[in-house]
Design brief:
This protein is an alpha/beta fold and 441 residues long. 27% of the residues lie in helices and 24% in strands. The longest helix is centred in the C-terminal third of the chain and has 20 residues, at 390-409. It is globular. Bound molecules: flavin-adenine dinucleotide. Residues 7-13, 33-36, 42-43, 45-46, 77-78, 104-106, 130-131, 165, 168, 272, 274, 306-308, 326-327, 330, 361-362 line the site of flavin-adenine dinucleotide (FAD).
Length: 441
């Protein structure tokens, strides 16, 4: 009997638990450990940040759903991983022993990289985040507070130095603008700034995708947004952001500050403590180093997927930026690693690799939206496409309902999703094997 433990029940961890359970016979044990008892659909957090979604619409209790699938769920934070002993120590002091560990702990939010930033800074007017549902709720409170004012201070939305997930910054800027229009409050906001570490609008940590620069610049310009690129935010004081500007060549050419009444700045990501502390498991930022089979070269019974793994930036930029890890890429890593663990349990060598590195994203913009496909993530690309239109708005809503339903039902890849992506030439696995169809006896 093998015991597979999955650490972190997010976009990567939940499908990993379901897919692992589907592949293994019931003499094998699957345990999912996560610090919160609930799953949150992270891509909907921008909507929570403008009050277009209630928490209850995008969050659900995990245990009743995993119980039905014979997956043990433990709602505890992992404090320590000891690979020599194959154990994970939890916040309540309990220890869980594993044969295989899957790390899907997502990002820790590096607010400490920019002093005074983040929702827990203690400032009356500090910078917010929409990375978690708790943060998005706090952002919404602060936004409403700004709207109460007769003469509101500027709004600043954007991304901090070292950020890698830029799509949600654009998405949030656009839906805040759409929400202001809806409320008839757009004219009240005299200044709206987009401040980003990217070298140009639409870079997205990917060196641009299709016409992303042109489309996003046009969109923000038409809404009266002042854009600032190559910005290194160095400090946040109460209602004030201190920034340095860099030239294309990487020279610092200006230092200044921007006042704000409401701000959301996506932080840089790093690895979570319990994972980052394990000797030789991670890179200096605490992201798990994996080989092409999603396996740690140092600890062969540890696999990892999602935002918590180490990938190189697509290119060097004057202010540091990282490459995004998006949902479909994460699910592909998961499919590869569960297949590999299954192989190992059967006494075979792991051979599955995720399909081509890709970035696929849908970003809502209120009534319209923007979508991109970068395949592969690194240039030259086979597919390099950025599009916009009301269909993206509706697709994003449909995707939200579909993914949440999928996670409640405990299935990971229904047929039509597979078909659509295969038509676009995108497969979760390099070899295109239907890994989830064969059980271990
Ligand atoms: C606001 C936002 C919007 C996004 N929108 C999109 C989108 O539209 N499309 C797209 O493709 N991608 C999107 N992404 C990128 C990416 O798909 C998500 O970040 C995704 O949730 C990452 O999945 P993950 O499993 O790696 O991490 P997460 O989903 O963050 O899951 C990590 C889990 O691990 C748990 N955990 C962490 N530390 C511990 C510990 N020590 N012990 C126990 N549990 C722990 C966390 O509580 C969490 O449940 C978005 C990202 C953000 C931040």
């Amino acid at each position: 009997m093998a015991h597979v433990v999955i650490l972190g029940a997010g976009t990567g961890g939940m499908p990993a638990a379901y897919e692992m359970r589907e592949l293994l016979g019931h003499q094998h044990q699957v345990t999912l450990i996560s610090e919160n008892p609930y799953f949150q659909f992270v891509p909907s957090n921008p909507w929570v940040g403008v009050g277009w979604r209630e928490r209850s619409q995008i969050v659900f209790e995990i245990e009743p759903h995993t119980r039905r699938k014979d997956i043990e769920f433990i709602a505890q934070r992992a404090e320590k991983i000891e690979p020599e002993k194959n154990t994970v120590t939890l916040a309540n002091g309990n220890t869980v022993t594993y044969d295989y560990l899957i790390i899907t702990t997502g990002p820790a939010l590096a607010f400490d990289a920019v002093p005074g930033s983040g929702p827990h800074s203690g400032h009356k007017h500090g910078t917010h985040s929409i990375c978690t549902v708790d943060h998005a709720e706090k952002a919404y409170e602060s936004y409403l507070h700004l709207l109460d004012s007769d003469n509101p201070d500027p709004i600043i939305i954007g991304a901090m130095p070292g950020a890698s997930c830029f799509g949600p910054a654009y998405e949030y800027a656009m839906i805040v603008l759409a929400d202001l229009e809806k409320r008839g409050a757009r004219k009240k906001i005299k200044e709206f700034h987009f401040i980003t570490s990217e070298p140009y609008i639409g870079h997205l940590g990917l060196g641009g995708v299709g016409d992303s620069q042109e489309i996003l610049t046009r969109g923000l310009t038409s809404m009266g947004v002042q854009m600032h690129t190559n910005m290194n935010t160095t400090k946040v004081d109460d209602g004030k952001m201190l920034c340095e500007h860099f030239t294309e060549k990487g020279d610092k050419d200006a230092v200044g500050s921007h006042n704000f009444g409401f701000s959301m700045m996506l932080p840089a990501f790093k690895g979570v403590d319990a994972v980052a502390k394990v000797p030789d498991l991670c890179n200096p930022k605490g992201f798990v180093i994996v080989d092409k089979h999603q396996r740690s070269p140092k600890y062969p019974n540890i696999y990892s997927a999602g935002v918590c793994i180490a990938i190189p930036p697509v290119e060097a930029t004057p202010v540091p930026t990282g490459a995004p890890k998006t949902g479909y890429m994460i699910e592909s890593m998961v499919t590869a690693l569960v297949h590999n663990i299954q192989s190992e349990i059967e006494g075979k060598s792991p051979d599955a690799e995720m399909g081509t590195w890709n970035a696929i994203c849908l970003a809502d913009m209120g009534t319209s939206g923007a979508a991109f496909v970068a395949l592969p993530q690194f240039k030259p690309r086979r597919v390099d496409w950025f599009g916009e239109g009301p269909w993206v708005h509706w697709s994003k809503i449909a995707f939200e309902k579909y993914f949440i339903a999928k996670m409640k039902a405990g299935v990971s890849e229904p047929f039509y999703e597979k078909l659509v992506f295969q038509m676009m030439g995108i497969s979760r696995l390099k070899s295109n094997e239907p890994a989830h169809l064969q059980k271990v006896g």
